[in-house]
Amino acid sequence: MVEYRKKEQLLDRVFAALADHSRRQMLARLRKGNLSISELAEPFAMSFAGVAKHIDVLTEAQLVRKVRAPEDGRSFRLELQNQTLTEATNWIRYHQEFWTSKLANLEAFLEEKEYEQTSPKSRKKN
Fold this sequence. Notes:
6 helices, three-stranded antiparallel sheet, elongated, 126 residues, mainly alpha
């Protein structure tokens, strides 16, 4: 039960992180490779502190992680983490399949009702 709750809380953090346009842009930039915080912040019209807060949200959601830069060992580079995004994708896919199935069943039901109403048998009854 505790593991399930932790997984749900992580999904909440992932979806909250993805809800912000700036954070999605940051993730897109990191697809091209690991970046330092200042490299990631470069195109954004926000303070370094603002970028750092966005990075904290992405880190809490385990969408990125900070790794020591091999060049000097003091600074950090950011890299994408795929696992939580994969779990979020699986959650979406599961619910998409569920609702697609339900909507297909509803469509078939409505088509059947429409056919019954327009068929010659139903006209004779009226």
